[in-house]
Specification:
Blueprint (H helix, E strand, L loop, with lengths): L1 E8 L13 E6 L10 H7 L1 H8 L3 H22 E11 L2 E5 L2 E5 L1 H11 L2 E10 L8 E3 L7 E3 L3 E9 L11 H4 L5 H7 L3 E2 L12 H6 L6 H10 L5 E4 L6 H9 L2 E6 L3 H11 L1 H25 L6 E2 L6 E2 L10 E8 L6 E9 L4
Parallel strand pairs: 1-12, 2-3, 2-11, 6-10, 11-12
Antiparallel strand pairs: 1-16, 3-9, 4-5, 6-9, 7-8, 13-14, 15-16
Pfam families: N6_N4_Mtase
Keywords: DNA-binding, Methyltransferase, Restriction system, S-adenosyl-L-methionine, Transferase
GO biological process, one term: DNA restriction-modification system
Length: 352
């Protein structure tokens, strides 16, 4: 099996390099409005943002920033197939402007934007993103009533384009081989993720690190496994350091990304080189966790109804039997005039 991975250096408000109805899944984390590190970016996109901030009008700045994201959501509506899923990782913002402290509910504004474009909201996920501080409050410390809750979570908002689920050919191998284990389903489809930590930034360039807000590899990897099948195409319009593309490569899906900063593509070269080892370790870790689950379940004297087709292990449900992990066996460059590209060859997971 082969997958392709393309990255365009360009503005996500114009995804002209992607044809209509060609993407099955979006997994992305946009710049968060009203987070100070993104002020300059939004002001470059629309000077009215800077004017609103300078005049102390936080509400107007908030809406002007989201108006720029709305143009990206318009493009997603165009490129996604009917029944496709969009997963948007976003956090709310707390900020004092003109001596007034408040929360700016980014998740609510994004939810409104997608619903107004005909997307159906699906149950979302909260994931804890612990701060480095031991303090769990802001404001007046232990004196009521002027302390504020510290935001330590972000949202993964999940939407389906249109009202119908995607259709697959009967007993499609690419779907059944992409199944997840029963216990993974129970963990992944919980509405609160407490086992995912924030991404440690390892960029050597201080300026690049300041412009990067990478989320943990585990988040796009899970979402890709949850909401796509082998061979599907995953889009990240806010590509950054390429975490979504790396996760798609490890999961045996195609990917496409858009990124304004060409320097991030150079950083991705090292990450691509590590994809074979990473994909192998991720697959083996999932299999090892399943075997640990089997041991625990047997100690509880609970039975298994089926045997996996490709691994010497029992599984709980019939749908798990055909599950088969893939690893990256080789990577070639596929550059053209419009994009940087990679061709990844996938083989069944090696166990030794």
């Amino acid at each position: 099996m082969e997958t392709t991975h393309r990255v365009f250096v360009g503005d996500a408000r114009d995804l002209s390099g992607i044809e209509d109805d060609t993407v099955e899944l979006v997994v992305t984390s946009p710049p968060y409005p009203m987070i100070e590190m993104w002020d300059d970016l939004f002001t470059d996109l629309d000077p009215a943002v800077g004017d609103a901030l300078e005049s102390g009008d936080g509400r107007r700045a908030f809406e002007a920033m989201h108006a720029q994201l709305d143009r990206v959501w318009d493009e997603l509506e165009r490129v996604l197939v009917d029944g496709a899923i969009a997963c948007i990782n976003v956090g709310d913002a707390t900020r004092s402007i003109d001596d007034s402290f408040r929360v700016y509910p980014n998740h609510a504004r994004v939810l409104e934007a997608f619903e107004s474009r005909g997307f159906d909201p699906l149950p979302d996920v909260l994931w804890r993103k612990p701060t480095n501080s031991a303090a769990k409050f802001m404001g007046s410390g232990t004196l009521p009533p002027n302390a504020y809750v510290t935001l330590e979570h972000e949202y993964v908002l999940i939407f389906r384009k249109g009202g119908e689920k995607r259709d697959f050919e009967p007993k499609a191998d690419r779907r059944y081989e992409a199944a997840y284990f029963w216990e993974e389903r129970n963990q992944w489809f919980s509405d609160v993720w407490t086992d995912v930590r924030g991404e440690l930034q390892v960029l050597e360039d201080d300026e690049l690190r300041d412009r990067s807000a990478a989320y943990p590899f585990e988040i796009p990897y899970r979402l890709i496994c949850m909401y796509s099948a082998y061979g599907d195409t995953v889009l990240d319009p806010f590509w950054g350091t390429g975490t979504t593309s790396l996760a798609a490569m490890c999961a045996g899906r195609n990917s496409v990304g858009y990124e304004l900063e060409s320097e991030f593509l150079e950083v991705f070269e090292d990450r691509v080189a590590a994809a074979p080892d990473l994909s192998r370790s991720v697959g083996r870790a999932r299999l090892e966790r399943h075997r640990e689950f089997v041991d625990r379940r047997r100690k509880e004297e609970k039975e298994f109804g089926y045997e996996a087709d490709h691994y010497e292990t029992p599984v709980v449900t019939k749908m798990e039997r055909g599950l088969q992990f893939r690893e990256v066996a080789g990577i070639d460059r596929l550059d053209d005039d419009e994009s940087t590209g990679y061709l990844a060859e996938h083989v069944p997971l090696t166990l030794e």
